[in-house]
Amino acid sequence: MIILGLNINHADTSACIIVNGKIIAAIEEERFVRIKHYAGLPINSIEFCLQKSELKLKDINFITVNYSPTANFMQKTFYSIKNILSKSLLKKIIKFKNKLFHTNELEKYLKENNFTGKIINVEHHMSHIASSYYNSSFKQSVGLTIDGFGDFCSTQTFLCNDNKIENIKKVYFPHSLGILYQSITQFLGFKNYGDEYKVMGLASYGKPEYINQFNELIKYDKKNLFLLNLDYFSHHTNSKFSYNFSDGIPKFPDLYSKKIIDLLGNERSPTDKIEQRHFDIAASLQLAFENILFLILNDLYDDTGIENLCLAGGCALNSKFNGLIKEKTPFKNIFIQPNAGDAGGAMGSALYFLQNKGVNKNKVEQDETNKCYLGTSYTNNFIEEKLIKNNKLLKNYSFKKLNDKDLYTEVANRISNNQIIGWFKGRCEWGPRALGNRSILADPRNPNIKDILNAKIKLRESFRPFAPSVLEEFSNKYFDLDYSSPYMLNVVKAKQLAKDLVPSVVHVDNTCRVQTVSKADNFHFYNLISEFNRLTNVPIILNTSFNENEPIVLNPDHAFDCFERTSMDCLVLENWVITR
């Protein structure tokens, strides 16, 4: 059985293919079209999945999509009747459907390519939790999904047992933790879709001085999980409100009402200087977000007694919250899918159908060490023929090809001498984090490297931190971390040794978003860090995504272009080393 999973009616469109129970490939469309959070039909992603599987679209038995028009129908109907006096509601629903849904576009593409299989709709949050539970090692767990909205739902809890997933509770439109976080992100002057991670970095510089005000914005409710004070938000009343994805770029109007100014003061313009008040609002938002979720999780544990937890949804990328779960709840084992946001729903919808409607009744046959390296790859011969021999620019650079052992030695030496390396090796990562295959690498011991990277290469805000990649066996020596964190999804406290030896990866609040690296997870990256450890007695490398205000690089041309226009010292393309 061959299943092609798609995320097509949300930002971060993507595709994933499963052949006879095995995940073969998965990738986001933004990597191809070079538009962050791209929301158009993922044609390139589909074509890559087919190519990697050596199949054509006519060979696909089922296409699954991570939305269901019939999901939560009663709640939609009740909400519509309740708000019938609002003339904008029907217009909004029609506008939303016409602008957002790619149904006709997809049907046209499928017809042109002789697809004769069936299209399967899987509810949005079921797709989310399936992407986590069916990728975990747990037989039994509870599940929690949190995002903006999908299929009229923003948050859902689940009981996952023996490959079956059952709903426990749902939070319906218009109440949403994702909307809370997105609206305050906008209020703080970060207007682009997906800028919430900037506010997480901002929060570490502040104190939760506005927590009482946030307690006015959102309240915990055991029956409903939580409730927004809708007076401060506009997503449910603004007749002009729409998700505009027409050019592939997600655009949202402000989701907060002007009443929020009475509560938090004036909103920040994107060009305004960031002041202490903004740091404090960010810190208060983060704490309020955490407080609600820890109350939900502790209730979930009390009700079930299950010690395993699966998380998914865009809010599950909040790494500071993730790093506190073990401290603030009784859960002992936590799994978060590396592509927890909407893109991951492509995989989740396919896995859900496979496990519940298909012939497969066992956990998916997936390489335990390859839950995230599922994208494109390029051979040394391809790089030589397509880039090195055909690029006139390379006449201005030096290049050589090394075997793996010599490559680790040369690159580790360069990093130890404060050079900044573009590292492109193996299959690209599935998800928003660079995990050692499409990374920019630097020496974490140099306290000035962070500012150098921000100013000369990443061209981003100075308050944003950089992450450490550490050999797994040494992680607890440097960080308050007694479990593996291969997907860089947990912020944990830095121990004194890390503060002393690797200051450039320790954030202002003495925390780090850590990636643990094992030989089984990433053989080449592990060996590179091991060589750096041999040279310096420090088993940690600074790791940030290989990009410059763009999606992470996909192919050798993207990598070389980024190298050529920035101040990187060295570019590694598989076994080719290119220097200025």
What does the model show?
The protein contains 20 helices and 21 strands. The strands form four sheets. The chain has a nine-stranded mixed beta sheet with strand order 13-21-20-14-15-19-16-18-17, with helices on both faces. It has a five-stranded mixed beta sheet with strand order 3-2-1-4-5. Helix 7 (about 175-185) runs antiparallel to helix 11 (about 275-305). Residues about 95-100 have low confidence and may be disordered.
SSE order and pairing:
Elements: E1 2-7, E2 14-19, E3 22-28, H1 30-33, H2 43-53, E4 62-65, H3 73-82, H4 88-100, H5 103-112, E5 118-121, H6 124-133, E6 140-150, E7 153-161, E8 164-172, H7 177-187, H8 196-203, H9 211-217, E9 218-221, E10 225-228, H10 260-264, H11 276-304, E11 308-312, H12 319-328, E12 333-336, H13 344-356, H14 380-388, E13 398-401, H15 404-416, E14 421-424, E15 438-442, H16 449-458, E16 467-471, H17 475-478, E17 490-493, H18 496-501, E18 511-517, H19 523-536, E19 540-545, H20 556-565, E20 570-573, E21 576-579
Helix pairs in contact: 6-13, 7-11, 8-11, 15-19
Q: Counting H and I runs of at least 4 residues, what is the number of helices?
A: 20
Oligomeric composition of the shown chains: single chain
List the strand order in the largest sheet: 13-21-20-14-15-19-16-18-17
How many E strands?
A: 21
Low-confidence stretches: 94-100
For the biggest sheet, the summary is: 9 strands, mixed
Shape: globular
Q: Quote the beta fraction.
A: 15-25%
What is the structural class? alpha/beta
